[in-house]
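Q: Protein A?
A:
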Amino acid sequence: MTTPNNHTPNNSNPNNPTPNPASPTNPPTTWSPALRPITYPQPHLDLSTAPITTAPTSGTPVVMEPVPDGRAESWRAWGAMATASSSGTPVIVEPVPDGRAESWRAWGAMATASSSGTPVVVEPVPDGRAESWRAWGAMATASSPGTPVVVEPIPDGRGSVAVRELGSGVGGSGWSGGGRGVADPVGDADRLARAEITRIVEPGDPVMGRLIEEYGAVGALAQIRRGELEPEFAETERELANAERRRLNLGQLVTGWAGRAAGCGGRAADDLAAGRLLVPGDPGWPSQLNDLGRVRPYGLWLDGEEDLRFACLRSVSIVGARAATAYGTHAAAELSAGLSDRSWSVISGGAYGIDAAAHRGALAGVAPTVVVLACGTDVCYPSAHADLFRAVRERGLVISESPPGVQPTRLRFLVRNRVIAALSRGTVIVQAALRSGALNTASHASALNRQLMAVPGPITSDVSAGCHTLIRQARATCVTSVPEVIELIGSIGDDLAPTLRGPSHPRDALNEETKRVLDAIPARKPAGLATIANAAALPLTTTLSSLGGLESAGYILRTPDGWRLRPRSSSPTIQ
């Protein structure tokens, strides 16, 4: 994981890695101010038997050791190093640009903490300086935004894990959390502020996104309540709007926010008591939502039993027309059921038509399904889907950017489409007219560089015209089956769809001359050798040879008057 520059091992030759005095059992006496010494359990590692290798980038000696669950090997660096591991996933060590440390960058999506076997995920730190191990369950992340973190054993030796920040740390300690090493990466004040912002500001507002990014949720909320933005931020936002040629009235926008804030009356605490809010920085936050940039959700309200991040690791969005035909609902249900049986989660919007068929098909499989609503998670819209949403809560998740009790609007339907597109690896449009909300989801998927797929329909069907346009413009790939979808979103080279071939017939194996002879033989009245050779335009010897092979294979019958085709009820005995 990370190595202070002032105690880089003396021997960095990868061909001759030797134990370094700065080992876990003999930590160095001089430390970089960016890192704090850590007391390891004794004995921490048997260096006499452990296989030694070196870090690919810096040549730092590291030791390979098994993970307790036996599934993988982990890189344990010498000195005050942290432990990380890979469940069969290749990892490399890369330098941090500021020169303070090194970080583990995984080529896959998942890894495992070597101390506890807890699954962890590698994702970028907001300031772009390094990669951090963001853990699930009993693990945590940096408590201060933008700080690179590493996962390492807790000094008390209880087999748990904790987070050490690669900066000055929180409160000068550099450690987050206590007890079993569990820390809330997002403070209560930040979560409360984001909960209130979800009720004050419409989802996907780029100004609010930049405001939170610049000042944090607490600072952004304070400016909203004050009814005035910081002058520097306001000026920058106006310049950005001019550069993007979009209209922006900051005064009107902030006044509207302040009015809503005054009317909220501190409902955020009640909202948090009534629902579950997932915010950026939480262990379960899907990092792919960060691709949305300034329009990333301020938080997501969840209702259901599944973990959102795990549910979205292998996921596909399936959307389409509300006024779907029987063909469309059948295609959506078949695709969803097949994907779910192959452990791919299905994400959709819970609307009538294609969305509902996609969720029902996914519920017939084994993987969870996720409903992204344009209203509060406690609001059943459409009301006819009460039973469907109840089943999804038991087997998946119902999520929304809006707090409990908020009703849907046309704008919220369009804005939520970006979340549907961002959560999954690809989006399938089953049916869509030329003016359809599904095409809005398709645009978001394209902008996010996600795979965009479309299911073709009858050329006479208006509800498939949008799909045909996407295919014709080469914006979407035509898909007709589950293997074709998985080929586009799965592992390169491992999830290839089988090549489709038409049915084979015995006469396909005949050579061209024999086929010509067979075509020249009459079906009823026998013909002689000369007649057949003339009809086939072949020499007598070639024709006679072909006739013998056809008779042996059972295609023709020889009579005293010549040759004729065998009746259709009889099939060739040899192919």
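Q: Protein B?
A:
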Amino acid sequence: MWQSNRRYTRFLPPRPSSSETINQALANFVVQAYVPMKIVEHESFRHLMQLLNPQYEVPSRTTVRARIDQQYDDAKKSLLSSLQGSTSVALTTDSWTSNATEAYLTVTAHYIKEDWSMESRILMTRAMPERHTGENLAIRLKDCVDEFGLKGRVVACVHDNARNMDLAGRLCPDWQDLPCFDHTLQLCVKPVMDIPSVADVMSRARKIVGHFRHSTTMTAELRSRRVVMQLPDHDLIQDVPTRWNSSQMMLQRLVEQRRVVTDILLNPRLTGKRDRGLLLTDAEWEIAGDVASALQDLTEATNNMCSDTHVSSSEIYPVVCGLLINSLGCSSDDSALISRVKETLRDELKRRFRPYESETAASIPVVTSLLDIRYKRLNFLTPELKNKTRTALEGMMEEVPLRVHTRDDSQQPPTKRPRFSFLITSPTEATNHEDELDAYMRVNCESDGDPLVWWCEHRQRFPTIAHVAQKLLSVPSTSVPSERVFSKTGRLVTKARNRISHKLVDKVIFLTK
């Protein structure tokens, strides 16, 4: 058949692309699609390329690898140039084990560019065969900082709350060490899941979800019946132990589909006598619904804080204090169990985030709230703590190097010196750091505004504060950017591809971002 297809290649339009252009595109395809390089040796692939361009000679694996190396070198050079133009950089990091039982360490960089757009890049995904001690992790982080020319410009590193990561942070005094918001929130929720009545309902809920997910017949019946019952077209969710919000979502979805789940489990034609015992009692259904509702706002906070494309660290303490005061406040309608759930969450949030302590008020997340036009009033703090935050910002402003303030490039310089140009014409014009901060605080808040857009428009008016804002607003609230690499690399490093070199893994993951 392939022989006969060659007769039709003469009708194809000529391909102007050079062989080198196609080689580069082929290397990019291998990287972006996570396909093995040996695809170039597959007979069907070679036939396809022959059909598309008879003049093109499919390269060897060595050639494709060389092009990937070249693309990596070019991309890294471009990134180094971009990083050199940034005043500061924030990092996230995490370690993990691949499907091929190989350990890796990932580091990502986050910074605000000159045009005030947020940039996030993967710096490295390197094999780490040595023990993951705090000392070894600290050495790897310092080596990464040196490799990318970031020494003295890293403002903070965000990671999970593992002991080895905490130790690594303490061994890197050149930058601030910040815990992951999502991971800390998970630690706050864990004691709730350990309450006996909640734990029992969670266990039974997992069995129900597993019963449906492991049977194609039950799943098909579930989908057909919910259409008849006019329920939302949602499948049941199985929770993941490392993601507490998946447990809340599992309960919420199960309660949503209660009618159809009950209908099927009580049907003797579909469910055996032994499996009918899976069905929750009315009291257990009530617990499932109440716990799902109590944790709803925490799930929303977790999902919203995972982005690496917008400012998030400034929202940490507005969210924490909002949860404490509003979402987890006592209500006369709460059952004894829900009162205990809320009390447990309040105690854990206060213990782990320490929102009402002086040290916290001077921390990077709270100072970023002051720099965020949405939260700069710091309504979640007492007047005393607000002063602590302001003092911390003033100290950072004092560290900003003196530089000549230039006017906006879009404004044309005057052709004639204005009369009495030395006079103070605007009451809000800043003459020193304190005046500049006072003028900034007089600006109205914008609850729906984008802080980066706002600072891009007002950086000339508040140059010193803008310098600090550009430095701190880049700090992410979570280490999720590093964790997202796990799923990418899981598609690349599999048991079937366990011989892929560590250097190639690093380069492919670097190029996919």
